[in-house]
Amino acid sequence: MRLVLTSLISIVRSPLHPISRRVSNFPRLGTAKLHRRYASNLTVVTHEHRVPEQIEDPKITEDVRKANALVTSFMKFMDLVKDEPMKGEQQRTWIRDRFRAPDFQIPSQAKIAENIIHFLFERRLLDQAIVVYRQMLEDGLLPSPSTDALFLAVTMKVSEAPGRDQFEGFKTIFGYRSFTETHFMELLDHMVTLEIEPDAAADLTRLFISLKDEGYRPSHELIMKLIDLQTRAGQIEDAADTIAEYDFNQGAQSAFDYSAEPYARMIHSTPASDQAAVDWIMGVMREKDIPIHIIVFNSLIARQSQNKDLRKAFAFYGVLIRLASTTPLRPDAATYKNLFRVLGYQYKADYRANASRKYQDTGAVTPPRQLFNDMMALWFSTKFHPPASEDPRKRRQQIEMDQGLLIIALRAFLYTADLPGALIVLRTTSELGLPITERTYFVVMRFLTRQVYYDIYRARLKAIQPLFAFELIGPFDPRAITRDENAAYHWIMERLLAHNGREGTHHGSVPTVERILAQETAGPSGERLDHWPLVNMLQRALQIRAAERAKMSIPWGHNYRKRKLAQTQEEMVPKDIPIYTANISYSYNRPLTSLSAVTYR
After folding, report:
1. What DSSP character marks residue 594?
2. What is the rounded CA–CA span in Å between residue 213 and residue 337?
3. Please, which residues bridge with residue 585 across strands?
């Protein structure tokens, strides 16, 4: 749509938007710089095939250089694949024989260009994406409505009157039958990337819904997104009206799974400092006699976690526990995730305020071990844990939820320096039949790597031996640790795996450091991983820390460790409650198979 490009160019040429020197990595820029950044390449694009000029600036990252090279190659490719009639029966026969598969499709130039655009946009390389978009229009290729909508959103970011200039363009695009709700949800995701204000996104959502056919009914996901946008924009009364509109609309089925669901989303979306808005929402729920659901408690607890308010978070938890004894209401996985998350960052047994932890009395706070005991009784017991779903997709979601909960609990015990508690969490994970993942390795090894690094640093300052580091990674020359923290951390992680992965590694494979560090982007591999390297690391750390407290240079023995773990197990895992066992091995690429629980020595 040339309207979009015209809007972009007119904004660029406005005296209110002077073009600045090109900079990379736009997410780090403020709003004023974003105005100039989106437009920086448009003025160098002419009717010739021109690409972002290769500025020899050390600030330009390698990713940007690669993207520029990609755009250059793409422009040459566009010249080579102009749509021309086939010449000769021989060529047609060759192509027919080469691609005989009935489902084989050769993408058009426009489709290839749009794939390139979305590839660049997802990597925040808007300069290069705009160049490709301009070239599409110069070559007479017709972009899809979703691509036009994407660049209209870009103009919203740089416009002096966001929404007004683009309204007619969006109105035209949303009116196309080919622009579906799926496309609109993708557009909303792009608007989050562009940091467009939620009130503008909410107005566009209303516009999209109003332009659809009379029989159109927004999906549950879109309605919840609209409520979220309106609440974050401060339009809580409008959000309440949206709930009323779609709860029971002319006798149709409610858009919500349960009546408290949209109100919980409103509570979750209100600014952390706006307690008055939460009070107003709770008042509406009382007025409408909305039954309290666990997700409302979870939203309230999550708000206090964001505010780093331990006492209020556990005050809500205390109310929930009292209700659990007389009503069907009880904590779920999300409840304990929020509580363990705030404990990990805010709780200390010997509480002292510091730069990241404000002073507060922890007397009313449930200690981590007691909270884990509650979790085992109220979530992981056979009485309360949801039964395993027969649907493979839902089953994977259940497993991921339980795995994620235990990993957050493990991190909380590590951050509160409770190594026996962390070992019991690892043991419980295996007893529940849940596999160890790369994320588990990452959490444990990141914590211990920092401990080793600072032990070496402290030993250098005091001219003493780094006993903790020697115990964890074996003998080494402390002078080998460089000032480059990233290189030092990588070296320590490799030594941790090498020193602790030799013993008892018959329960699965040991991941490499690269695989562990890539877990956030690559996700779990599905391969069965060995738990013993992590156990060995934590056991060694436990024994040497005990020796340090006793001012001894030799790690305490196995008897001390076994006695300590037995005491901790008694505190954390209830004896008389049957515990739910998943008894599966989870794989992203393979079907679920049986896995017997692992016994710890």
Report:
1. E
2. 42
3. 593
User: Does residue 468 contact residue 541 with C-beta atoms inside 8 Å?
Assistant: yes
**Alpha carbon 461 to chain centroid distance?**
38
Alpha-carbon distance of 262 to 16, in angstroms, equals 41
Question: Rounded distance, CA 531 to CA 426, Å?
Answer: 8
Residue 246 has pLDDT above 60, yes or no: yes
Min mean pLDDT across 148-157, 503-512, 541-550 is at: 503-512
Tens of pLDDT, residues 160-200: 655 666 788 888 899 888 899 999 999 999 998 888 899 99
Tokens read off for 358: 């404000």
| Residues 217, 338: Cα–Cα separation, whole Å | 34
Is residue 80 exposed (0-12), middle (13-18) or buried (19+ Cβ within 10 Å)?
exposed
Tell me the per-residue pLDDT of 352-396, one tens digit each, with 9 for 90 and over: 555 555 555 555 789 999 999 999 999 999 999 999 888 888 888
Whether pLDDT at 282 is above 90: yes
Instruction: Give the three-class secondary structure for 252.
Output: coil
pLDDT exceeds 70 at position 77? no
Q: Report DSSP state, residue 42.
A: G
Look up residue 519 and give its two tokens: 């877990």
Provide the residue type at 479 as one letter. R
For 585, the enclosing helix (H) or strand (E) is: strand 584-585
What number of residues does the chain have? 601
Q: How far is it, in rounded angstroms, from Cα 424 to Cα 219? A: 43
Q: Which residue is associated with the tokens 């039949």?
A: 433
Three-state SS for 437? coil
Instruction: Give the type of residue at 506.
Output: H
What does the alpha-carbon distance between residue 16 and residue 77 come to, in Å, rounded to a whole number?
37
Q: Are 143 and 133 in contact (CB under 8 A)?
A: yes
List b or e across 316-354, with b for residues whose CB sees 16 or more CB atoms inside 10 angstroms. bbeebbeebeeeebbbbbbbbbbbbbbbbbbbeeeeeee
pTM (predicted TM-score): 0.74
Tokens of 177: 């039958």
Work out the pLDDT band at 454, boundaries 50, 70, 90.
very high
Strand partners, 593: 585
CB 408 within 8 A of CB 337: yes
Q: Write the single-letter amino acid at 11.
A: I
d(CA 25, CA 599): 49
